[in-house]
Amino acid sequence: MAEITAGSVKELRERTGAGMMDCKKALAETNGEMEAAIDWLRAKGLSAAAKKAGRTAAEGLVGAIVEGTRGALVEVNSETDFVAKNEIFQDFVRNVAKLALQQGTDVEALGAAQYPGGGTVQEKLTDNIAKIGENQSLRRAAVAEVGEGAVVSYVHNQVAPNLGKIGVLVALESSAPAETLNELGRQIAQHVAAAHPQALDADSIDPALVERERSIAMEKARESGKPDNIIEKMVEGGLAKFRKENALLSQLFVRDNKTPVGDVVAAAAKDAGVPIKLIGFVRFQLGEGIEKEQSDFAAEVAAAAGTNKAEPVA
Fold first, then answer.
1. How many whole angstroms separate alpha carbon 91 and alpha carbon 234?
2. Contact status, residue 276 vs residue 268, Cβ threshold 8 Å
3. What mean pLDDT comes out for the span 61-67?
4. What is the pTM of this model?
5. Which of 11, 31, 102, 189 could form a disulfide with 154 if both were Cys (CB 3.0 to 4.6 A apart)?
6. Contact criterion met (CB below 8 Å) for 148 and 173
């Protein structure tokens, strides 16, 4: 049997748009012959999915699940928001979220995991692409866990229970009653959904993000024409404000817009009579960071009609 290399799998994926696991299997079944592998994919009915694989998938759903002291978020994308209402698609997102609890955050490993009812997650996804008629992709997964306490989820713009446009997990470490932690966690998760913090505290903000902000602040300050020592103070002041506004613990709680989130947690701990520590959060917003294709509807209509441009209606 010919050796199946990562390079050959990559080439087959690029040429067909089929899933990684399908490409590996196709090459294994055809002794590594590229053209034969392409034919194998077509024969297995995967070409319909492959044709759609190049289209931008920036819609879809974020799914959340919590079991005990462990929670998971997944994002599964589709081309249009109509698919988010499809029960087949929704069921797939729910099942993948459950699998993420066991498998972790590696998307490749998650794609290779066994899907309920048979086959792998990637094979089920490929089957769904053919059935639904749109490109879909498993984009990312995240897991939050505590030893003692609670992981609380919140989904904004829900289209079905635990499925929506924004998903949040909040991890609270404490021996406080579950009722207390769940209510506090829900409120903080709603805040995270609305305020979009970049990190838990100021020291945890991505240094690259801070440097980018520094460059912007420096450019603005220089336009003022002030002396260098004043400019430096202006920049540092701007960065301090940036860190405060983008770190969860120092953000002003959206419920009253005056109390830092860290103080909200401290007050809850005081009322409960035991320490409560907010140790982390995860926030997924559907399609963030994906560059969506801009379509020219008139041009599409003209192309469908077999003309070079849309003619004016008489």
1. 52
2. yes
3. 97
4. 0.74
5. 189
6. yes
Look up the CATH architecture of domain 59-202+248-285.
2-Layer Sandwich (3.30)
Give the pLDDT score at 300: 44
Tens digit of pLDDT for each residue in 271-284? 999 999 999 999 99
pLDDT surpasses 60 at 302:
no
Tokens read off for 195? 């305020």
Kindly report, residue by residue over 199-258, the tens digit of the pLDDT: 999 999 999 989 888 888 887 788 878 888 888 888 889 899 999 999 999 999 999 999
Give 6-52's CATH code, choosing from 1.10.8.10, 2.170.150.40, 3.40.50.300, 2.30.30.100.
Answer: 1.10.8.10
Q: What is the dihedral of CA 118, 119, 122, 125, to 10 degrees?
A: -50
What separation in angstroms does the CA of 281 have from each of 140, 147, 150, 225, 300? 16, 15, 12, 41, 43
Terminal-residue alpha carbon distance, the chain: 65
Provide the residue ranges of all domains of the chain, joining segments of one domain with +: 6-52, 59-202+248-285, 206-246
Longest dimension (CA), the chain: 77
**Cβ(42)–Cβ(30) under 8 Å?**
no
What pLDDT was estimated at residue 225?
81
Q: Rounded CA gap, 185 and 199, in Å?
A: 16
Predicted confidence (pLDDT) per residue in 179-193, tens digit: 999 999 999 999 999
Q: Which helix (H) or strand (E) holds 209?
A: helix 207-222
| DSSP conformation class of 83 | G
Q: Any idea what the Cα angle at residue 11 is, between residues 6 and 13, rounded to 5°?
A: 95
How high is the pLDDT of residue 311? 38
